[in-house]
Write a structure and sequence with these properties.
Elements (H helix, E strand, L loop, with lengths): L12 H8 L10 H8 L10 E5 L5 H9 L3 E6 L2 H13 L6 E5 L12 E6 L8 H8 L3 E14 L6 H10 L4 E2 H10 L2 E8 L3 H20 L4 H20 L3 E10 L1
Parallel strand pairs: 1-2, 1-4, 2-3, 4-5, 5-6
Antiparallel strand pairs: 5-8, 7-8
Helix pairs in contact: 2-3, 8-9
The chain binds S-adenosyl-L-homocysteine.
C-alpha cells in the first residue's frame, strides 16, 4: 500500500497523542536501561537538578526520581502528557522533587549552567541530535552530564528499503562513530555509548500491537487513523526484517 510508506511525523499529532496516552512509555526504553545509563553519571546530590526533555508521561523520569535524591523537571510539549506525568509523580509520592512542565525543547525555560544532568529518551530526534546537543549544552554546569537515546545505523551499508525508510523518517540517522564525533564536536566528552537490547523495540512494538486494533475500531472509518496504523505496522515490520542494521543507542557525555 502506498500509504504504508508514510512516517509518523506526517500524521495529525492529536491522533498520535491519543494513541500514545495511557501507556507507561511513549518510546522504546525500559527502567533497567534507564538505570544502566544512570550508572555512568557521577556526583548527583540532593542539590542537583535534572531536566528530562521530551519526558512524555514520565516513565523514565520516575525511575530517575526513585534512584537519585535530585530535583527532576520533566518538559514536554503535550499538556496531557504533563498532566499524566504529575499524576504519576503523586502516585509514587515523588511530587516534591519530580515535576512536569509544559515546554518546548527548542526553547527551554532553564537558566545557563542551571542543570547537573540533561536526560532525553526517545525524544531528541524531534529537534535533531546535533542541534539538541549543542543548544542544550549551555544549560549544563561545567562537568554536567547529558544522556540521550538515538536511532543509529549499525553498519556503513544498508539495504535500500531500510535506508530509504529512515532517510525519509529521520535524515539525521547516522553510524555510531559519526554520532560520537558529533557529541565530541558539540563540546562533550563521550563517556559511554552502547546499544540498547533488541527487547526495548520488540516490547515497544508488542505493546503497540495490542492497541492497534482497538484504536482502529475507536476511530472507525477515519482514513488518517487507518494510515497511521498502517505506518506503525510498516515500521514494526521493517524492524523485524532489518534489525541487524539499526537500533537505539544510549549516548552519555560530560560537558567540558
Ligand atoms: N521520553 C518518553 C517519551 C518519548 S516520545 C519515553 O521515552 O517514554 C517523544 C516525546 O517528545 C513525546 O512525549 C512528545 O510529546 C515530545 N516532544 C515532541 N516534540 C517536542 C518538543 N518540541 N518539545 C518538547 N517535547 C516534545
Amino acid at each position: 500500500m502506498k500509504n504504508e510508506k508514510h512516517t509518523i511525523h506526517e500524521f495529525d499529532l492529536n491522533i498520535i497523542y491519543d494513541f500514545f496516552s495511557n501507556t507507561a512509555r511513549q518510546g522504546p526504553g525500559s527502567p533497567e536501561e534507564t538505570l544502566k545509563a544512570l550508572s555512568f553519571v557521577d556526583g548527583l546530590t540532593e542539590k542537583s537538578k535534572i531536566a528530562d526533555i521530551g519526558c512524555g508521561t514520565g516513565g523514565q523520569s520516575m525511575v530517575l526520581g526513585e534512584n537519585t535524591p535530585c530535583e527532576i523537571i520533566g518538559v514536554d510539549v503535550w499538556p496531557d502528557f504533563i498532566k499524566q506525568f504529575n499524576q504519576n509523580a503523586h502516585i509514587k509520592n515523588l511530587q516534591k522533587r519530580v515535576k512536569g512542565i509544559v515546554g518546548n525543547m527548542e526553547n527551554l525555560p532553564f537558566k545557563e549552567e542551571e542543570l547537573d544532568l540533561i536526560w532525553s529518551e526517545g525524544a531528541i530526534y524531534n529537534i535533531g541530535f546535533e542541534r539538541g546537543l549543542s543548544e542544550w549544552r549551555k544549560f549544563l554546569k561545567p562537568g554536567g552530564y547529558i544522556a540521550v537515546t538515538e536511532n543509529t545505523w549499525f553498519s556503513e551499508v544498508r539495504p535500500a528499503e531500510i535506508q530509504d525508510f529512515w532517510q525519509k523518517a529521520y535524515p539525521e540517522i547516522d553510524t555510531i562513530p559519526n554520532k560520537v564525533a558529533q557529541m565530541q564536536k558539540a563540546g562533550y566528552l563521550p563517556i559511554a555509548t552502547y546499544i540498547l537490547p533488541e527487547t526495548i523495540w520488540t516490547d515497544y512494538y508488542a505493546s503497540q500491537n495490542l492497541r492497534l486494533e482497538p484504536f482502529l475500531k475507536k476511530h472507525n472509518g477515519n482514513k488518517m487513523v487507518e494510515e497511521f496504523i498502517a505506518s506503525q505496522r510498516y515500521e514494526a515490520e521493517l524492524f523485524y526484517k532489518y534489525k541487524a542494521y539499526y537500533g537505539y543507542m544510549f549516548y552519555i557525555g560530560k560537558k567540558i
